[in-house]
């Protein structure tokens, strides 16, 4: 039998591994999920630019940013619920949360790609995507700890 590729091994460590391996596996899952969700936005946004759309006005930009914030916060709420959900097997909670958490920056990034005709709107939305991504990145150690068996957690 051949060995699994290193990528699958690292993702497997997100389910069962040392605490550092779990966090590293969740961060890999976050990166992969974000890329799968957001990468198609760049060529689609560039293709949309070929139609020479009108620049977005301030009300439309504000509406897009507000939409991205609300959808991002909603996906973060769902990711947090996945991290602590008793319906999800304990060892899969962190991985589920990381994959769902990737939706928050992906939504803002995709809306930014759809706003390429207006650079201020695209930059605002991409900045929001970076902020959401950084927030999820910081949450991953806590979400990884949710998947531990309670008897493995240190006593306080």
Q: Into which percent range does the helicity of residues fall? A: over 70%
Secondary-structure element sequence?
HHHHHHH
Beta-strand percentage? under 5%
- N-to-C CA distance: 44 Å
Write the SSE topology.
Blueprint: H1 6-13, H2 19-38, H3 41-49, H4 58-84, H5 93-101, H6 103-114, H7 119-146
Helix pairs in contact: 1-2, 2-5, 2-6, 2-7, 3-6, 4-5, 4-6, 4-7, 5-7, 6-7
Describe this entry's structure for a reader.
- With 156 residues, this protein is mostly helical.
- The chain contains 7 helices and no strands.
- α4 (58-84) runs antiparallel to α6.
- The protein starts with 5 loop residues before the first helix and ends in a 10-residue tail after the last helix.
Keywords:
7 helices, mainly alpha, 156 residues, disordered C terminus, elongated
Q: Nutshell version of this structure?
A:
The protein is mostly helical and 156 residues long. The chain contains 7 helices and no strands. The termini are far apart.
């Amino acid at each position: 039998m051949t060995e699994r590729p290193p990528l699958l091994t690292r993702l497997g460590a997100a389910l069962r591994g040392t605490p550092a391996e779990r966090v590293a596996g969740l961060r890999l899952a976050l990166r992969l999920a974000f890329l799968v969700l957001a990468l198609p936005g760049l060529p689609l946004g560039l293709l949309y630019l070929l139609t020479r759309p009108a620049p977005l006005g301030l009300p439309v930009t504000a509406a897009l940013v507000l939409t991205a914030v609300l959808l991002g916060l909603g996906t973060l709420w769902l990711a947090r619920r996945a991290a602590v959900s008793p319906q999800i097997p304990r060892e899969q909670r962190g991985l589920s949360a990381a994959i769902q958490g990737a939706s928050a920056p992906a939504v803002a990034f995709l809306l930014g790609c759809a706003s390429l005709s207006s650079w201020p709107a695209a930059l605002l939305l991409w900045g929001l995507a970076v902020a959401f991504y950084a927030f999820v990145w910081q949450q991953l150690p806590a979400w990884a700890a949710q998947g531990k068996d309670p008897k493995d957690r240190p006593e306080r």
